[in-house]
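Morning. Coffee machine broken again, so started the prediction first thing and wrote up yesterday's gels while waiting. Chain of 164 residues, entered below exactly as on the submission form.
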Amino acid sequence: MKKTLLILSIFFLIISCKKSKQENLKNEIEDKITTNLNDPSSYEFNYIHLDSLVYMTNKEEIKIILNDIQDLNKKTDSKSQKTLSFLESKMDFLKLSNKNKYSGFFSFRAKNKFGAKILAEYAFEADSTYKLIYLKDNMGDTIYKDIQVIIEENNKLLKEANSK
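Came back before lunch.
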């Protein structure tokens, strides 16, 4: 009985020590912010707000569209085929726009150049694994952008330049 209690307590201790995905995201954002602060020692966390409504809505809408596509594949009339084509393009669009899955705000206090404590709120986006994709300050300037996003943007610019 004592061994069982010991094993269970160790198990619960290990589980409780594991950081959550949101906590890891918070820490990643803090790392990016504190490196750019005038006085990193004055940093104080205020709150983090994570919004996944758009992601969840798009995910559900894609499921509905897939069901409709399966139903329309059984029909052969021209109206069904036009609707099928429209739904496929809509699903492709939703998948593309669904790349940045979670958005939110990160609020903190820190001292500015003049030593005054300010409250700042930064916007961010993260993927489905809660990995930071980009971080923008309250002036709209990009503080951090994931390297994969930069590569995709450069590839898009190269394709546009080559097509001209």
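The mean pLDDT is 80. Going to sketch it on the whiteboard this afternoon.
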